[in-house]
User: Fold this.
Amino acid sequence: MSQFVVSARKYRPTTFKDVISQPHITTTLKNAIASGQLAHAFLFCGPRGVGKTTCARILAKAINCLQVTEAVEPCNQCTNCISLSNNSSMNVYELDAASNNSVEDIRDLVGQVRYAPQLGKYKIYIIDEVHMLSNAAFNAFLKTLEEPPSYALFILATTERHKILPTILSRCQIFNFNRIKIEDIVTQLQTIATQEAIPYEASALQLIAQKAEGAMRDALSMFDLMVTAVGAGGTITYAHARDHLQILDDDYYFKCTAAFLQGDIPAALSLYDAVLRAGFHGHHFVAGLGEHLRNLLVCKDSATLPLLEVTDNMRPRYAEYAAKCTVPFLVKALTRLNQCDMGYKASQHQRLHVELALIELATNHLPVPENRPVPAEPLSKSDGQKDHSLTKPIPKGPETITIPTLASLKSTLATKETSNDADVKKKK
Ligand SMILES: [Zn+2]
Assistant:
């Protein structure tokens, strides 16, 4: 049996061009290497799983590589590159400050800086999660950072830039990493699935990418989990991904929004009950619903439309629902949900806490376009046998709101009259 290598490691980029979604960084780094104008200290900031450590290793490789390519990429074949790939390089030190944050750890590292490299031009120190260093450790480090020997290069990485001392910040060249776009994650997952000959449904990969929230590492771990879950030869389906990754389907949120718009309190409450019975956490639902309403809000204006982070196949549905909601409703709903989110942990009765918010949102005083309620999507279960005692009677409206023309109004009225006549006649 061959040994299983996690995708995050197996498909970790080894050249700048393979780094995803960070062209502004890779281009600048390559230019710096090509022109020989390398700073002595870099600070890589950005969310987790977006390629900070990967870029640090590629940079370390490229500056010590014996035969850098024309495109300023490490060759990945020379002895220096290979020893770095095998983690056996004497020129590269990696310190995880999350677990080694004491002043002694930094003194050890600083002590090594004194010796020039045996092979290659540079000694590279990569300090991950650098914001975790204790104050004493920061101070011990500062001196070295101020006057580093010509062969020393520091690459600091952090997810929390605001926790880094200004004295450190001012000595570093700062690079801000982007969250990875959903479509870029999907493309990468597709590439891997194809290479590994794993059949998949495109919507399943999109779901994984969405859940990863811009972190490629998370997406790859989820992908590996799915591969294990479906077994050899199995297809990664949307249903698999949804169930295994404990993802609350967008469907739930659309139905919930529809219930709000219709003023259908029972529908909103039974939906929440279904969510809880499916094993989801209430807090998770509140956060997801907030995200959903936020997505509807950004759909309301072409200026904010680029902020909509959903997959292409979901966009029409978001546009459709956004048209049904007014901006005041969405703002009010978001504010109420945010309040619910903040109070959730402190609440003694968390279920009721969420239910109250849902009831408020489904209460009819919320404005709806043209003062006309919009029909809710039918709920899969208990539909047709709903208790409407809490619901105000609602006339059936069309799926989408259109402004009627005078002519269409006239014809509608005419047909209504005739049908009324027909009813009267029938009764007679
Ligand atoms: Zn090389």
